[in-house]
Amino acid sequence: MDIRQLEAFVYTVKYQSFSLAAQKLYLSQPTVSSHINNLEKELHTQLLKRTTKSLSVTPAGQTLYNYAAEILNLQQKAILELSDKNQKLLHIGVSSVPSLYLLPELLSAYHQEMPDVRFRTSCSDSLDVIRKVTDGTCDIGLVGTKISDTPCRFLPVTSDELVIAAPATPHFQACLELKDPVSMLLKEPFLLREDTSGTKQETLYYLKNRGLSLDDLNVTAVMDDAASLIRCITLGMGISILSRATVQNDAQLGKLLIIPLEQSAFLRKLYIVYSSTQFMSEPTAHFFAFMKQFYAIS
């Protein structure tokens, strides 16, 4: 029995899939299967029940999983305490809206308290940040949505209003005078964020509440660059649902229009995301405690 075998077993149980475990571990699927088969032979017991459609853990497999997960956690703790990660370097994943409107103030305040701590930030979409926190690439993250199918946990930090951003043209200005401008605007050419964006996930949630889906929209472009998407709106290419914070300046300059989604604001939460399974190093734990204090989270 070795660490690689235990790692293959834990990841297979965690993701309920040999192929996903192989993908996460950067191994071939036959290698993952071989590791688990060797464990079963060594322990003289069946760990997993396999069928063509499902995968389940035997009682013996659950016992081994509990011990193996603890062993891998201890391994990671040892590596962290003996490696460069112990040199007070924090890797923070952050999605586009928190990157602009939460992270600068947070890092500035923490730097005043802990000037020796260094940061490396990675800006991507929300689901990618969650993935990086899950696999340990990032120590902690700030995102614009949460999901259920993850070992990560989410703490709400603040609210962010989603609005329709439209070109500042007479046509769209006339829409503002309508009794129900949103229904008319949703028939216009629509610019959409990429699938893994938190804004995209919340847009789908809003549409579902209105009894709509993406098939009901006239989607003309899917874009993974929020700044480029906003520029396209100002040039008259279409409308989009975006964070008010990201378009407020352009609206004040008269480059685009902001239309609330409802009579009352449509709010989504922004979250701290952290792993419930990865060992949290001392610098990360201190930063996490500071974040909760900074955002007044009990």
Tell me what the structure shows.
47% of the residues lie in helices and 23% in strands. The mean pLDDT is 89. It has 13 helices and 11 strands. The protein is globular, with a radius of gyration of 23 Å. The chain has 298 residues and is an alpha/beta fold. It has 3 domains: 3-82, Arc Repressor Mutant, subunit A (Orthogonal Bundle); 85-157 and 269-294, Periplasmic binding protein-like II (D-Maltodextrin-Binding Protein, domain 2), CATH 3.40.190; 159-268, D-Maltodextrin-Binding Protein, domain 2 (3-Layer(aba) Sandwich), CATH 3.40.190.10.
Structure described in brief:
47% of the residues lie in helices and 23% in strands. The protein contains 13 helices and eleven strands. The strands form three sheets. Strands 3, 4, 5, 6, 9, 10 and 11 form a seven-stranded mixed sheet that branches. It has a two-stranded antiparallel ribbon with strand order 1-2.
